[in-house]
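Blinded run. Sample ID left blank on purpose so nobody reads anything into the name before looking at the predicted structure. Input follows.
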Amino acid sequence: MLIPVGIGIVLYLIPTPAGLPTPAWHFFALFAATVAALMTEPVPSPAVGFIGVSAGASFILVGKNAG
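Blinded prediction complete.
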């Protein structure tokens, strides 16, 4: 269960690559953590998806650049 969380935290803390907006990098970290959780299956897949969407909304990653 710690592997996906660790992947997300490490990617989140790595400096943003040149030319990429910071919110996009943070969203990528969440995406990579979600994919890692789907591969390791610490909880059922629907729960992983719900946790990923909830985390994106909690950290205001969804809709940050809209409008």
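Unblinding after everyone has recorded impressions. Residues 5 and 33 are 6 Å apart (CA to CA).
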